[in-house]
Design brief:
about 210 residues; alpha+beta; five-stranded mixed β-sheet; 8 helices; globular
Length: about 210
């Protein structure tokens, strides 16, 4: 599936051509422990390998997969969307920071705080990787007044981006996280427990 320019930060390398020979899509949820496990192996060990051995043969797309049974999933992915809006080049770095703090957004750690308080914490996390906290919060915060037409579901500055992501992901039928698609087809051989060696073996067999 094509990637809209406004979500270009989800792609690695960021300047890879659209006509890349192969595309590997990672459908990940920021509050899914198995997504975190796959992400950290991939981010710390596999991306450097791809950059050195396959820079012109493979592009990676991080697909943000909201899992509705985790109520905070929408909120943390909204933060990812805000980063994409403000500084796409920091999206992967922010994602690494968020996965590193994911437990602080699990159910028991958000149940007694307001939605905007969760956004404040996410804003501070974004600030830790170099984003303007004020601009991030302006995109995330939800007001307590009706809109000009009297509507009460006012959303925030990234609501439309989240709607697009959800619509696009539904078209693929992805349910479980993590899920990987290779050239548009689910790659069931890849799991969250993949080691660096297993990734290297998979790349050698598939990136030709």
């Amino acid at each position: 599936m094509a990637l809209p320019p406004k979500f270009s930060g989800q792609k690695f390398p960021p300047d890879s051509p659209n006509q890349a020979v192969h595309t590997l899509e990672l459908y990940l949820d920021y509050v899914c422990p198995f997504s975190a496990k796959l992400f950290y192996t991939f981010y710390n060990s596999v991306l450097p390998l791809i950059k050195s051995k396959y820079p012109d043969k493979l592009q990676i797309i991080f697909r943000q997969q909201i899992q509705p049974w985790h109520p905070s999933s929408t909120l943390v992915h909204e933060a990812g969307a805000a980063v994409l809006r403000l500084d796409p080049d920091k999206f992967w770095k922010f994602s690494a920071a968020l996965f590193g703090q994911q437990k602080s957004y699990f159910d028991v750690n958000v149940v007694n705080e307001t939605r905007n308080r969760t956004y404040e914490r996410l804003t501070q996390l974004a600030g830790s990787v170099g984003l303007d906290e004020k601009k991030v919060y302006e995109l995330l915060a939800v007001g307590d007044e009706p809109d000009k037409d009297g509507g009460l579901n006012v959303g925030n500055g990234v609501t439309d981006d989240i709607k697009f992501m959800v619509k696009a992901n539904r078209l693929t039928g992805v349910h479980v996280t993590p899920t990987c698609l290779f050239n548009g087809v689910v790659e069931n051989s890849i799991s969250s427990s993949f080691t660096e060696e297993q990734w290297e073996d998979w790349l050698q067999k598939n990136i030709v």
